[in-house]
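Exercise 7b. Backbone tokens:
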């Protein structure tokens, strides 16, 4: 087991919120799985799409958390601590959208943002700039590894130069076909935070601890430790 704490800042384990956990029972098992890997805390980041208002989303999220917390307390088991956020899908004009602050991770000013899987436009960079420079919201770019094959190096570099943070999924480090690429992203300073992006107990399960165990004694141990420290700093802002 590790000698440092880490918070999994990206997970879809709230029951019935999105394409993640489908039931309270599944959520409890996901949390247990994370706890067994030594994960101290987890941020719930259900997908937010503007098909509903932010307030409607928050009402649904509160109810889902209520059900999950009740079941956690009733079980008497020890689970990671939970705090709340969202994975917000980018849309043009989002830089000026209402209520974005309410979707940040806990009480922090970090917002988990999913970017388009099509070539990025100038308007996206402007939106990101107004989020961070005007509103003080720092976008955490979700699963950066997914954009790498789709975007030009110039665009990735341009994004990295803005006030943003890159998050990589643990799966990228675990799968033998992508492990090399994942390590290279870490080595090149393209990863500031790690997350499981867990959705279920099978194909996209909580696996952050498993990924860390593979890495902590490698040459990338320092980068991993830094990412862990950063995740705990964000968590502490929620307390
Ligand atoms: Fe996600």
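Sequence design result:
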């Amino acid at each position: 087991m590790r000698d440092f704490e880490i918070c999994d800042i990206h997970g879809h384990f709230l029951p019935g919120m999105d394409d993640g956990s489908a039931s309270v029972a599944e959520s409890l098992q996901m949390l247990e799985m994370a706890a067994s890997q030594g994960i101290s805390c987890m941020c719930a980041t259900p997908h937010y799409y503007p098909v509903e208002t932010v307030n409607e989303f928050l009402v649904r999220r509160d109810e889902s958390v209520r059900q999950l917390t009740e079941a956690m307390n009733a079980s008497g088991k020890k689970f990671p601590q939970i705090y709340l956020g969202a994975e917000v899908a980018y849309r043009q004009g989002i830089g000026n959208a209402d209520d974005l602050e309410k979707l940040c991770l806990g009480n922090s000013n970090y917002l988990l943002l999913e970017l388009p899987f099509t070539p990025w436009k100038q308007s996206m960079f402007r939106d990101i700039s107004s989020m961070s420079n005007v509103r003080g919201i720092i976008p955490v770019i979700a699963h950066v590894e997914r954009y790498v094959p789709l975007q030009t190096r110039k665009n990735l570099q341009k994004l990295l130069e803005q006030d943003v943070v890159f998050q990589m999924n643990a799966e990228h480090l675990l799968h033998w076909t992508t492990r090399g690429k994942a390590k290279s992203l870490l080595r090149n300073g393209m990863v500031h935070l790690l997350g499981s992006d867990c959705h279920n107990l099978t194909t996209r399960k909580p696996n952050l601890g498993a990924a860390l165990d593979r890495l902590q004694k490698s040459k990338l141990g320092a980068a991993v430790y830094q990412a862990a420290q950063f995740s705990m700093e964000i968590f502490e802002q929620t307390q």
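Instructor comment: Residues 104 and 232 are 15 Å apart (CA to CA). The two ends are 25 Å apart (CA to CA).
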